[in-house]
Design goal:
Radius of gyration: 19 Å
Number of strands: 14
Distance between the termini: 37 Å
Low-confidence stretches: 107-113, 117-124
Mean pLDDT: 91
Helix content: 25-40%
Largest sheet: 7 strands, mixed
Structural class: alpha+beta
Strand content: 25-35%
Order of helices and strands: EEHEHEEHEEEHHHHEHEHEHEEEH
Strand order of the largest sheet: 9-11-8-12-10-13-14
Length: about 300
Amino acid sequence: MKLQEDGRQLLSESSTVYGQSEYIGIHALSEVVNSLLASGAASMGVEVRITYPPRADKSLIYLMKKMIKKECCKRGILLLKIQDFEIPLICVPSATVNGISMSSGQDARNLCTGHIYGDRKGRKGTIGEDIVLSKWVGMEGMLLAARERMDALTERFTPAFIRRILSYEKELFAGRELEIAKDMGATALRQITQGGIFAALWNLSKELGAGLELDMSRFSILQETVEVCEYFRLNPYQLTSAGSFLLVANDGEALSETLLREGIMASVIGRITDGQGKFIKNGEDVRCIDRPAPDEIWKLFTEK
């Protein structure tokens, strides 16, 4: 949500993450912080609401609050309020983070819905521009699944492999890649959240009022994500990945090369086209991207 006054915008973002792990608050916080940074926020404040069922382990709630406070302090985020509530009608804990920030006057002039810059929404100026994927498909969902089903993972995978999975938690927060993308003239920044990369691409096309041509072989995905998703029968392309972004730029190769030099995984996965078609190539097959489906992470809570 954005409210404009006196040449500046009040920015607001919200995220709710469910799960039995104390890390769900960090996941919700990272999604909000990343979205506000993409909108041009320089400083921000957050409110946190944690809910849990009566049978929940209270030590988990304590750890969740402690981790959120530590992360906010580390990143210079003002923690306005943090509350927890026992709710008899729910069966899974949740963490909701609401973030607010004020953009600069320049950001207020250039910012459009969906973090699209330069007044490009619905304009032909984006036609032919490249789409760059930063980081990896399904990364955040892999971490959530690992935390939710750690007992099952330890029966299947080695401790070294599980440590590699959890090592990607440091990638949840974006920062340098957004600065680079803006400096190099990126016209759109979209975080990959609920519904995964397929949902993010669909929404990007809708916001730009243009079509897409994509090459699925260029989508970067971690081997750890492939293994976890195969084990739990999840589709990584419909799995949340906060911390990963779709970046639209006139010279996607230059942008991806710059990000790679900074140690940030990036690849050009397609381009913006005229019309409304959303085509994705996978080898010899070409199909259209479907409308966003529920995030695959929900299967961990709804399937037995």
